[in-house]
Amino acid sequence: MITRKKRVRNKVIQHVSLIALTAVMLYPLIWMLGSSFKESSQVFVDAHRIFPETWNFSNYSDGWKGFAGITFGTFYKNTFIIVTISTIGAILSSALIAYGFARIKFRFKKFWFVVMMLTMMLPFEIIMIPQYVMFNWFGWIDTYLPLILPTFFGVPFFIFLIMQFIRTIPTELDQAARIDGCNTITIFTRIIAPLVVPAMMTAAIFSFYWRWDDFMAPLLYLQSPDKYPVSLALKMFSDPEAVTNWGAMFAMTTLSLLPIMIIFFIFQRYIVEGISTSGLKG
């Protein structure tokens, strides 16, 4: 009886702690949602109040109008173009490279794998200037090419994730396929690729998140406002030389989170399955 009461008490404490932690983590999002309905002048005056006394729905229509005749529909379209193409490139190239590291024998394989892993440790600030100089020499500034094309050469983290997943697949499948006349490419497309879909989906979700939230790279390479993604467009609300429309800014920020939340709730099982199945083990 004492043991049962102790278990119930521990369960209650655990659930209360989790609810409290959840409330703390969600508070900034709830405050942002409430602020998107406040008058711009009242956002920080009534900062202690989550929801306004008078709801101002015009913030969403005012924010959607955008700037200089460019609506947020254009910014969303630009973002989806960048995110979709770069995600497809990152997943396809990373899966192919991961297959090479996991299944194909070639000279200096371990050396190139170590080099690839070392690139994961390089912060963006180190390669930022060399990349800008190179892309400027190519004439790619103010285009989407610097944001999209590098992803078609693989992303180290995705390569490592998918490679670990491939290593859990028995090599006997490859041998049986070769007996049936399949070559290396056919084995990858017909056997390996369908089996590593959970890992590829996990990588795709991460790529979508990272590209959607990316601010620094578009800031460096894009100069025309009609090519800006949502991340740069939100920055345009803040003008140190004029009055910032905080209500419209929070309204558009709230809308910018919707695609990420929708993707997460639809594909969250792939995140767990992709990571737990591969286990990130060697």
Automatic annotation (TrEMBL):
PANTHER family: ABC TRANSPORTER PERMEASE PROTEIN MG189-RELATED-RELATED (PTHR43744), ABC TRANSPORTER PERMEASE PROTEIN YESQ-RELATED (PTHR43744:SF6). Belongs to the binding-protein-dependent transport system permease family. It comes from the Bacteria. This is Multiple sugar transport system permease protein. It is found in: Cell membrane. Pfam families: BPD_transp_1. It is a multi-pass membrane protein. Residues 76-267 form the ABC transmembrane type-1 domain. The chain crosses the membrane at residues 12-34, 80-99, 111-132, 144-166, 187-210, 246-267. Its main location: membrane. Keywords: Cell membrane, Membrane, Sugar transport, Transmembrane, Transmembrane helix, Transport.
